[in-house]
Amino acid sequence: MTQRITSAPCCWGVDDVRNPHLPPWTKVLDEAAAAGYAGLELGPWGYLPQDPTRLGAELRQRGLHIVAGTIFDDLVSPENLEKLRTQADQICALLKQLPAPPADAGKAHPAPYLVLIDWGSLARDLAAGRSAQAPRLAEADWRRMVEHIRTLARLARDRHGVRAVIHPHAGGFIEFDDEIRRLVAEVPHDEAGLCLDTGHLFYSGMNPQAWLREHAARLDYVHFKDVNAERLARILAGEPVRFFDACAQGVMCPMGQGALDYPAIRQTLLDIGYQGAITVEQERDPRHADTSLRDVRASREYLRGIGFA
């Protein structure tokens, strides 16, 4: 089986293009290549150049490809739908004009992907990782969110030939086991798959190996994170903390330095026959991006050391 290890701009603290402390995008590409990654995600729309000719040349120069683009936005509000459709259209159009990722023989839905993440509720953000305290969506709002996801997934598939994948994310309205299970039941497999993130599952009280195994049939794409268990326990025991504030406090750490059992996760992926892209993420404050190369290199070397090529 082929498993390609890729990275994402969030490892350099790039989560919001409005943040004045973001590192230059060329630094991210240079350091991802230097650390030995096969490719990258686009990160927030507008961070990497949107000109496919320019970005394609920069990627080829470094031996990289783009594995996915992401909508990280409010998937619930009715007034946001047109904005979401525009984002999906723009991201997918760019993905299809860039150098294609390596082919994954036998994979039903190969990269690149459109990753769909709900985000934007302060109440849910403050309840990240705390299922009992997290307010759930009202029934009408849930149904609308599901329909928005299906609309975006069909747009990506039918207009651009891009596979949409749903990413449960700490601090959004798709985070906990009850929400993920219901979403899987209500979004048809031919419209969207899953992108399970080991770190988000752990942060939100779930066992990554069990979830990867249970949802193998829907799993198109995987994210890896590692979590500092001591910091997470302190955060969850204290006053409510927004997810990215927890990341700025160092709750995410390089692969192999946290609580997740990556040899066991690797065996689970082998058992279920997963192949394709695995994107390593370590969210941080961009003001700490001077240590990003050290950390992304440590993560890549650790994964290589336990059997990931």
From TrEMBL:
SUPFAM superfamilies: Xylose isomerase-like
InterPro entries given in the database record: IolE/XylAMocC-like, Xyl_isomerase-like_sf, Xyl_isomerase-like_TIM-brl
Domain of life (superkingdom): Bacteria
Ranges for domain Xylose isomerase-like TIM barrel: 29-303
Name of this protein: TIM barrel protein
